[in-house]
Amino acid sequence: MTGDRVTEWVHAAMTLTSSSKSTPKAPWLPRVLGAATAAYSVAIIAKPELFARPTKLAPDGGSLSRGTAIGIRALGGRDLASGLAMAFAPEGQPLRTATAVRVGSDVVDLVLLGASLPDREARTKAIAVAGVWGALCALGWWLA
Q1: What's the rounded Cα separation, in Å, for the pair 135 and 107?
Q2: pTM for the predicted model, two decimal places
């Protein structure tokens, strides 16, 4: 086999690999998901009941304990930071990194909330919401 022939094969393989693995780019998707995450985060920081009621962390019609409100606000703060990072990170690796952090947060939410919420229905909802949002953000990571 000649060197020229090997070079041709390597070039052909690289061309095939790069064209078959190219990903369509849509950096707007993680940015929209980040903005939505940030908006929801601001809402639950301002009014933790918005998170507490559907997760059954608040008694029906009752008030939220101080500790629960603090925990929800901390969760909102984490999500606000990741959402803003997704919305404003430069394209390329910074946007992908911000989106990967969001996906990781959703995986943690899925596992922890899915395992520890006080009600089976609330656990099921939390798993569904975190799973769908995590999957959308993972798609955003792929398209970033």
Answers
A1: 10
A2: 0.82
